[in-house]
Amino acid sequence: MRVGVVTFPGSLDDRDALRAIRLAGAEAVALWHGEHDLQGVDALVLPGGFSYGDYLRAGAIASLSPIMTEVIDAAGKGMPVLGICNGFQMLAEAHLVSGGLIRNDHGNFIRRDQALRVENTDTPWTSGFEQGQEIVIPLKNGEGGFIASADELARLEGEGLVAFRYEGVNPNGSLNDIAGVRNDRGNVVGLMPHPEHAVEPGFGPDTAAAMRSGTDGLTFFSSVLQATVLAA
Ligand SMILES: NC(=O)CC[C@H](N)C(=O)O
């Protein structure tokens, strides 16, 4: 299975995403934002970072990059797409998932090992988790506050489209503690915390809770591998 990671000008976590994919056992394919070419990949990751310097709004300019034409087309056909942090911001700007991300309510960039509750396992990126499972992965952003209109929020909740919720601490004022959402079909998932930074023992979160494994993030990438094997 081939999983592509798109690099944009200002991407920061593309290499870690490629490494996470390899550690999960898939072939990692580096893609460039300026090309209209997905190189035949089976799944896609939009990585974290500061694409276009976060000018305008984080993810807004990247969402108009040439390759996004192909990403939007593939997502519409059911290809698994994961947006991590800046990638989640791009998914929201491209309307591939609902809602938007705004500056953290306290106004500061924040970095912490963050506990999350897995709310929806019916996606190719979360199928390896248990419903309600608590995981710990790193969070690091300045514009992580999840917003949506009252109607859209009610729809997300009512239709079970909230994929992850902050547990214990809401680090940025996100409505309903929402840390990640999925699209209606389930193939597109976006979240603010970073699974690709928690894939190897000793290099991930260092909280006591996470010492259970420190590799909760790897399940995202092993899940998508499993999803495609089952579909094949
Ligand atoms: N880690 C990231 O991807 C950061 C995302 C974005 N640049 C922000 O600060 O909100």
Automatic annotation (TrEMBL):
Recite the UniProt keywords alphabetically: ATP-binding, Cytoplasm, Glutamine amidotransferase, Hydrolase, Ligase, Nucleotide-binding, Purine biosynthesis
Query: Where is this chain primarily localised?
Result: cytoplasm
Q: Pathway listed for it?
A: Purine metabolism; IMP biosynthesis via de novo pathway; 5-amino-1-(5-phospho-D-ribosyl)imidazole from N(2)-formyl-N(1)-(5-phospho-D-ribosyl)glycinamide: step 1/2
Q: Where are the transmembrane segments?
A: none
SMART domains noted in UniProt: GATase_5
> GO molecular function terms here?
ATP binding; glutaminase activity; phosphoribosylformylglycinamidine synthase activity
Pfam families documented for this protein: GATase_5 (PF13507)
Q: In terms of domain of life, where is this protein from?
A: Bacteria
Q: Which GO terms describe its biological process?
A: 'de novo' IMP biosynthetic process
Q: Which GO terms describe its cellular component?
A: cytoplasm
Q: Which residues form the active site?
A: C85, H194, E196
Is Zinc among the key words of this record? no
Q: How does it assemble?
A: Part of the FGAM synthase complex composed of 1 PurL, 1 PurQ and 2 PurS subunits.
Its biological purpose is as follows: Part of the phosphoribosylformylglycinamidine synthase complex involved in the purines biosynthetic pathway. Catalyzes the ATP-dependent conversion of formylglycinamide ribonucleotide (FGAR) and glutamine to yield formylglycinamidine ribonucleotide (FGAM) and glutamate. The FGAM synthase complex is composed of three subunits. PurQ produces an ammonia molecule by converting glutamine to glutamate. PurL transfers the ammonia molecule to FGAR to form FGAM in an ATP-dependent manner.
Extract the PANTHER family matched here. PHOSPHORIBOSYLFORMYLGLYCINAMIDINE SYNTHASE SUBUNIT PURQ (PTHR47552)
Q: Any idea what this protein is called?
A: Phosphoribosylformylglycinamidine synthase subunit PurQ
Phylogenetic lineage: Bacteria, Bacillati, Actinomycetota, Actinomycetes, Micrococcales
